[in-house]
């Protein structure tokens, strides 16, 4: 439960910044987290659709970005670095009202880079698969100095 609470505090910090993450993913709900992984859900709403009525690829790419960051956070990181590489394979579609299950895993956090894998599903159907690499050297320094809301 401590890991889930930590990841929720990191996510709240993201949302409080008021940027793109807060706009696109305000409905994201963290379901569970353990060291190195987390599970989140997002219901597809009208703002998430492309012109053909399917879940927009930009949204799925954003989910891979944020999901990877939250998986890094599950490794006791407050700051989660900056993206250096993002790869998304769009496997099938999702539509209005579908609930996306987002399974994120931090494969490795090193001194300079962190590697993550994100799987997005609707039920047992894979919608997208993503890999996300982040530069974390400066995040390690920030983690020594940074406090999240609710921390002494």
UniProtKB/TrEMBL annotation:
Limits of the Thioesterase domain: 53-125
GO terms assigned for molecular function: fatty acyl-CoA hydrolase activity
InterPro entries: ACOT13, HotDog_dom_sf, PAAI_dom, Thioestr_dom
Pfam family, one: 4HBT
Keywords: Hydrolase
Segments traversing the membrane: none
Similarity field: Belongs to the thioesterase PaaI family.
UniProt-recorded name of the protein: Acyl-coenzyme A thioesterase 13
